[in-house]
Amino acid sequence: ALPEVVMTYELSSLYPCSSGGVRWAEEAFGKTCGLFTGYLGWVSGITNNATAPVLFFSYLSSHFFPDISDTDTPWIQFGISAGIAIVLAYINYRGLEVVGKASVLIFFVSIAPFVLMTIIGIPKVDPQKWLQTPTGEEEVFDDDTMAQPGWVPDTLLGGIALRPFINNLYWSVNGFDQAGHFSNAVPKRTLRNGLCLSLLLVSTTKMIPILISTGATDIEQADWKAGSFALAATEIGGRWLGTLVVVASGISLLAQFLSGMSADSLQLQGMADRGQLPLIFRTRSPHDTPTNALILGLLGVMIMLPLPFGFIVELSNFAYCISVIIEFLAFAQLRIRRGDGTMLRKTVYALLLIAPMLYNIVVLMVASYATYIYGACASALGALLILTTVPSLNLTNKGGWEEYE
Questions:
Q1: Helices H, strands E: what count in the chain?
Q2: How far is CA 170 from each of CA 42, 166, 199, 262, 349, rounded to the nearest angstrom?
Q3: Alpha-carbon dihedral of residues 6, 310, 102, 65, nearest 10 degrees?
Q4: Which residues, listed in sequence order, are joined to residue 161 by a DSSP beta bridge?
Q5: pLDDT tens across 144-180, in order?
């Protein structure tokens, strides 16, 4: 997370643009690389956005309506998740100011139950529980990705299923580069403060509830799954606290969707502003939001909604890994190789890149065959779109929706 924050602030300050990493890659390696990076980042973004409605439905249904969470009712799940996505997309359509105010309100509402759980749970914490490892020769892990074979065997390390652990950990702490899409809309100081505060909040609001939940309850590790925070809160403070945590966890996903959808649509708008995409993506609503970019992002989310949550996370991680690796390489090119900083500063930057680059490689290695196929198809489609529609590669302008500036 920290290397992403540093990279995002440095490159956004030098190259403020709504397209974010697209411009970074373009400045470092040329237009074609920038376009491909932007495409993969957008694919990862819309895939990741699909996790919010899916998890929102999972939280609410598991606690309030357990009957409709059954696999025999996929159309009900899809309908509710799609309805949630449409409503949230409309909020994005109403403008960044509305999104910002809604996100701030959602943050305070969603964090309050976890603060209460922490206060009530601290006296009950037994630190020895943090050191416990899964027991038993066979681990039954309720994760969708485990059903998908890969070239790296399903491995348990100390009783921990590595593939879902690596993917969920990665999914939980990445995405800070999305702030680059707002670099042209906010002052440099606001961007810096926002990134620093986000890093602090993401770290503390994830770690502290986990430490309290695992240290203050008797929930077996095999029983942990989506919605287990509610069980922990119920055991710590009672049914009322568990209900509050369910509601808070659900609505916090709304803010995730709002910010993700905004960033992805602004990316397409920024690329269109730079003449890298058709002018249709520059179309703005009366609320100054990129209408067609929002619609395209919503359609992408709809396609992903029927997939299981764990599989969506792995697909999102795979596309994101490739795009963020290019962004890190662009950072190395622009700020280490070409940068005007001191040798000490460049050395610190180089050391910061080692861990995230290695972890990205690990995430790519542990992916399933289905994810590799998805990545290959998505990459091939991106390359085809770039080669056949982008005028910067000296191809014919056909007019219509493919009109460029």
A1: 14, 2
A2: 18, 6, 14, 22, 21
A3: -160
A4: 156
A5: 555 566 676 666 666 667 777 787 788 777 778 877 7
